[in-house]
């Protein structure tokens, strides 16, 4: 699929720092009127948000969508839980995985795909502090190697 069809609106960069991403899923997101306009302007924050299954529905909590400036009474609460659109079988599978294996569903990015808002969900396992230090050490070592290669 060409990259021109996908426009990334918001990313959760901290998620890859704090979690091991085991698997990714794509889900639609149910939005109300002015929320779409606000997201298109890039007024979406994925920091500290997560997804969970409740009563057979996938919901995202903590996703902050700023109110649309030109909106009126139709602006909604910025932190309201938003429903994700996925097949029931996928929702059941993810619910079982999160409950049995102790994993978490973290939204990694929000993007436009063929005119529709999509959320990329990651099935994640938490990192310990020593895992984070190992990742930083590897990144620093790679940076030093690249720097020395450029100098020669």
Report what the structure shows.
It contains 4 helices and 9 strands, in the order βαβαβββββαββα. It has helices spanning 13-18, 33-40, 88-101, 129-151, and strands at 6-11, 19-29, 44-45, 50-54, 57-61, 64-65, 82-85, 104-113, 116-126. The strands form 2 sheets. It has a 7-stranded antiparallel β-sheet with strand order 1-8-9-2-7-5-4. A hairpin with a 2-residue loop joins strand 4 (50-54) and strand 5. It is globular and about 60 Å long.
Short note summarizing the structure:
The chain is α+β, with helices and mostly antiparallel strands. The chain is 34% helix and 37% strand.
Question: Which tags fit this structure?
Answer:
152 residues, alpha+beta, two-stranded antiparallel ribbon, 4 helices, globular, single chain
Secondary structure: elements and pairs:
Layout: E1 6-11, H1 13-18, E2 19-29, H2 33-40, E3 44-45, E4 50-54, E5 57-61, E6 64-65, E7 82-85, H3 88-101, E8 104-113, E9 116-126, H4 129-151
Antiparallel strand pairs: 1-8, 2-7, 2-9, 3-6, 4-5, 5-7, 8-9
Label the structural class. alpha+beta
Which descriptor suits the 3D outline?
Answer: globular
**Number of DSSP helices?**
4
- The CA-CA distance between the termini, in Å, is 38 Å
Task: Tell me the β content.
Answer: 35-45%
Low-confidence stretches: none
């Amino acid at each position: 699929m060409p990259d021109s069809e996908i426009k990334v609106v918001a990313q959760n960069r901290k998620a890859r720092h704090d979690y091991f991403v085991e698997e990714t899923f794509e889900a639609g997101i149910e939005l109300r009127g002015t929320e779409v306009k606000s997201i298109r302007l890039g007024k979406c924050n994925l920091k500290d948000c997560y997804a969970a299954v409740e009563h057979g529905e996938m919901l995202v909590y903590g996703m902050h969508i700023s109110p649309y400036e030109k909106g009126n009474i139709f602006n909604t609460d910025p932190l309201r839980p938003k429903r994700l659109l996925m097949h029931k079988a996928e929702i059941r599978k993810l619910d079982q995985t999160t409950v049995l294996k102790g994993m978490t569903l973290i939204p990694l990015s929000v993007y436009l795909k063929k005119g529709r808002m999509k959320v990329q969900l990651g099935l994640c396992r938490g990192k310990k502090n020593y895992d984070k230090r190992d990742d930083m050490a590897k990144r620093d070592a790679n940076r030093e190697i690249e720097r020395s290669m450029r100098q020669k």
